[in-house]
## 1
Amino acid sequence: MKFGLFGTGPWAHLAHAPALAAHKDVEFIGVWGRNPEKATELAEQHGAKAYADIDALIAGVDAVAVALPPDVQADIALRAARAGKHLLLDKPVAFTAEAADEIVAAAKENNAAGVVFFTRRFMPQIDDFLAGVTATGGWLEARVDHLGSIFNEGNPFGESVWRKESGGLWDVGPHATALVLPVLGPVEKVTALRGTRDMTHVLLRHTGGAITTLTLTVNAPAKLEREDAAFFGESGVAGVPAVDWQPVQAFGRAVDALISAAGGGPASPLDLEFGAQVVKILAAAAESIATGRTVDL
Ligand SMILES: NC(=O)c1ccc[n+]([C@@H]2O[C@H](COP(=O)([O-])OP(=O)(O)OC[C@H]3O[C@@H](n4cnc5c(N)ncnc54)[C@H](OP(=O)(O)O)[C@@H]3O)[C@@H](O)[C@H]2O)c1
């Protein structure tokens, strides 16, 4: 599969580019970034070419990988989907349900496959764990704490403007939401509050009656940084295992899933529809924070 990469920031360097260059079934064609020097530097590191024009890179590939702020990604993904190109998007797909739905519809209309890179969901130990707890059933609640501290010196993610504005809800919220949905099912009600230091508490009521509590921030004091998640129910407590962070390997599995879906295999469970479902939940949480009301989905 011929790939073009959009984005030259920290995540493109850490995950997308090395994984595309290492994948045996990928031809890594080119890199686009708004800064041509950064695009040239990243492309040259991986034997690809820098492109100055977005549509020229889209035209020259079978699939796009996108590592850009969500609103910038949404625009490029829509253009690529309309050109019939397969999409390997990063989380969150977009900032609005409308933008995410538009990408889903364009991909469907143009037979483009799609996968969204919810990193932990592409780690086999997490996948096995979620399959196990789904089979067990009887869960009454889930709790996910994802407290990051990205504004400390030396953290590359702290430079990103949209993370400062949109906070943990949109940055780590997608990962947290993607963990609970396969086990507890769709969400029908969302309510949320944000406190100091971006401390965002979100309650989700799933259609089966279970409740999820998400605690999210990207601006925690360093001593409070943590990533914990667990399901609670009739059979007791099931903690999501802590696993080694291997983004390049995980991204390789996302590429496998896209190649398989594009070749007529089953759609990935982390497809564009799933990505859009996550966006709807996060947008509802943002609305609840802004209005002080519970939002029905
Ligand atoms: N799956 C995961 O675990 C995971 C982990 C980290 C990040 N991500 C996702 O990956 C994406 C990229 O993240 P990131 O950490 O690299 O930081 P980012 O701030 O989201 O993106 C940085 C890149 O976006 C470019 N950019 C910023 N504003 C732009 C605009 N208005 N128009 C065009 N380009 C623009 C930057 O260009 P300049 O260099 O020229 O400023 C840089 O190439 C995000 O969506 C993030 O959510 C996912």
Note: The radius of gyration is 19 Å.
## 2
Amino acid sequence: MIYVHVPFCETFCTYCGFYSELCGAGKAEAYAKAVCKEIHDRAEEFDDSLRTLYFGGGTPSKLPVKQLTEILLALESVGHGGPYAEFTMEVNPEDIVVLGPSYLESLKLLGVDRISIGVQSFNDDMLRWMNRRHNAARAEEAFRMVREAGFANVSLDLMFGMSNLEDSVWEETVDKALALKPEHISCYQLSIEDDTPLADMIQSGKYAPMEDEKCWKQYYTLCSKADEAGYSHYEISNFALPGFESVHNSGYWQRIPYVGLGPSAHSYLGNRRSWNSSVISGYRATSEELSPEDIRVENIMLSLRTARGIDASYLFKNCSESVIDSLVGEGALVRQGGRFRIPESRFFVSDEIIRELI
Ligand code: SF4
């Protein structure tokens, strides 16, 4: 699995704590050169147990096709080119509309077979509050263009849990998303990250987080509507039509090794985790060996995020039997064949359940 972090954004969202920069003159070139060098330097580290490629960000659609091509050629030159089991590109709706069909055609020619559109909301007031670049009409337009370009595997990102998000507005967004029939929906609850405009707004009393109970309600609005529309809720934050679960992201939850390229990207290889520093070029990796305890905790946390759950014998071997029994007794864990999982009705409080187990 290969992840490429593209650290460019044109504007910065109210809530975002990811590393990214404005894509000014010369930056894309310097960035691509640094990633290509990293590909060559780390050629021995690539693991082919699951051949997926994922460009995330930041805003990968800010990366010019020329530099994207250079990175793909570098991967090919070290024996890790396509075709991939899944090749995802995250895009901003506004970029799709502005760059037009020729950009999408280039992505297709380069082998991209899955597009993930950062919609977040179909309400213009919410999008303005988030400081997103697009409006609802442009998001719909982008989706239509992606379809017209022939992409048959499209994911939409949505966000809930903002205290100024009325339930009725959220329902409209969910309905609109489902009406478009994307193959996949990722939906995240707003989280408050340090050093973001949102954190400043809280500090100055301009924003108060939404109460848990209201977030819970919005989460389950999506769960029930997605279920009615035929989506499986295969991971806490992810919904897919049959056969369209994200191969790449499912690999993370199964702890399949991956190489993360580019500034601030993380890698996981042979029980070592490493992460690159956050500068466009000349970034360096820091790494740590995971202890058996780190691995135990990660296995439990990641597996129980999914509807597939965790192997029952692994859980019995690694957690207290009385805690497992009591969680089963209160319906927070369900045994199905040889596995335990958290039922959908408790996904929202999965962190608490996992904390009890570990
Ligand atoms: S949410 Fe995405 S588009 Fe917005 S600032 Fe963060 S990385 Fe950039």
Note: The first strand starts at residue 2 and ends at 6.
## 3
Amino acid sequence: MSISQGIQFLKSRGINLFHAFDTPDIAGIIGNAVPDLDLNPYPTTVLTAHAGFKFWQSMKQAGIQGDDPVDQYSVLLAQEYAERFLNCEAKILYPSDYPISLMSIGEKAGWNYVTPMGISIHPSYGTWFAYRTLFLVKTQLTPTPRLVAEHPCESCMDKPCQTVCPSGAVTEIGSFNLETCARYRIRDDSPCSYQCQSRNICPVGAQYRYVPEQMKYHYRRSRNTMKRYFGSGAGN
Ligand code: B12
């Protein structure tokens, strides 16, 4: 089995972003979140992400049930990849309770450009991608070259994400106001409850927009978290 067969296996399940790091290159970011972990036995760290809706369809076909099918299926795929294609186990760092900054690691892979919406944009897939796993392996892989591209927002003159946001949270890059966004989203009648209008109107990677069921799943979860942090009183 070759490394590229492993990547093809993941792609066929909708995990279309894969980056192998030499572990020492991101040891600082990992160490901030998991200080007591000995990284020496693991020369390689793999970051994966899904983009678009294929992963969602694959997860449905696999019949994954439970409270968190996305994380559950992601971990299953990482483990199968490591066992079948690298002959080793995957030591999963994400998903987990470790507060690892995935955006910082994605930045090193070249996937992560900050948008006025706060979430990152990928040069090909737009904002329609999310990190699925970060795992350590004992096999040494050739590091993936960093994706080099221009920031997709730089050539966007109209900035429709800013004008379409009804809450006023989306302004300049780096100035996204999460609290303004959250307080608007958690209202009972909010048009942003289960979708983000700024994200929907962004032209980059529009063909990878999530299917409605997938969109609702992710927005319901983040909205519930926002309600816990920003909700005040009954009815919120
Ligand atoms: C907690 C969390 C949230 C919290 C916000 C936390 C906060 N700022 O206080 C809430 C629940 C609000 C949230 C919401 C969303 N999130 Co979020 N979130 C996370 C999570 C699990 C942990 C972040 C963290 O604390 N990291 C630890 C610290 C040390 O690392 P850090 O990089 O400095 O973390 C900061 C940023 O990640 C930032 N952050 C996290 N989420 C968001 C969202 C926005 C819009 C902004 C501005 C900042 C931000 O806040 C962190 C603390 O300052 C990460 C996964 C991860 N492990 O990185 C996903 C993550 C950042 N979220 C992600 C996504 C997609 C979303 C949503 C779009 C989900 C959805 N469909 O609704 C929404 C966007 C919010 C909105 N505008 O509607 C993706 C981003 C992928 C991408 N394309 O950039 C991540 C990486 C998860 C993933 N699996 O890919 N999220």
Note: The first helix runs from residue 3 to 12.
## 4
Amino acid sequence: MSFPDTKYMGSKQAILPFIISHIRPLSFSSAMDAFSGSGCVAYAMKRLGKRVTANDFHRFAYHIAKTTVENNSITLSANILAMLLRRNPKSKTFVKDTFTGLYFKEEDCDFIDNTYANIRDLTNETHQSLALAALCRACMKKRPRGIFTFVGNKGRDGRRDLKISLKQQFLEAIPLFNQAVFSNHQRNKATCSDVFDLSPKGVDLVYIDPPYMSPHSDCDYTRRYHFIEGLCSYWKGLILQAHTVTKKIHSYPTAFKNTRTACDAFSRLFDHFKNCILVVSYGSNGIPGREEMVRLLRQFKKQVRVYETTHKYCFGNHHHKVGQNNNDVSEYLFIAV
Ligand SMILES: C[S@@+](CC[C@H](N)C(=O)[O-])C[C@H]1O[C@@H](n2cnc3c(N)ncnc32)[C@H](O)[C@@H]1O
């Protein structure tokens, strides 16, 4: 089994061996990935045999985590896949009407509308999550850089991923999620909450990988991934900003978005999880910096260790100054016990 990784902004996939090598020796049996994103770190901790909770306040991240972390056994059979591909007379046309020509062609938008209607007809929640995770993955793979911050032909460089249909992407995504399903014989869980609403009870170790706050990037995940976030609920209860070129939704409020409030947000978070082992990923050009982060952790913990590795991010406008060619930054891992 292997994790269906993506180019998700800030994904730790490329430095997982570094992170896991420092987590593995620690003494813990339950772990929470409080900002799970792509889900790769929670999945790696599941592979260590731990009882894992994966949380993110975005629904698309929740469905990936429910499929790959919470789910120990359920896959999507060929029969269910055939049902997902059927024409559904109840299908609505919101995606076709709102987004045709922005991110995808009409036939791809129609495929998304119809597949969503079929997903709604599934009776098993895990089947629904697996199919939604695959549909979101298909949408991301068919976008230059996997994001929804621009429209038109920017970044369309003839790659296969951008050329093949949404349906083909979906057909390729389903087996990737199916083969990722395994049991570690633990009751794992996926949740979809603001981090401050999570209960720290029964959590031995919490892995904290929030958006990296920097004056050079807005680190707004909703702005980048609004299309797949909207799709997971078919925009129900979300406010679509119809006047915007990208037809994005309102970004979710988060304490981890603003460099002015950054230190206070970390301080409150460390206080919230003070009885857990705290493991924090952060970039060398983020705010707070290394010394300040150590100081904040020391408010609640006796011992703080800092490990460092270099990592090249694939995002040109993230974790470094816009316009700079050198996107080599250090990644810190703070472990406070
Ligand atoms: C750096 S990414 C995590 C990347 C992840 N570790 C991975 O390897 O893919 C930060 C995540 O925090 C989530 N997030 C931001 N603010 C949050 C909040 N207040 N509560 C819960 N999740 C939040 C974002 O949706 C985003 O997925």
Note: The chain is about 40% helix and 10% strand.
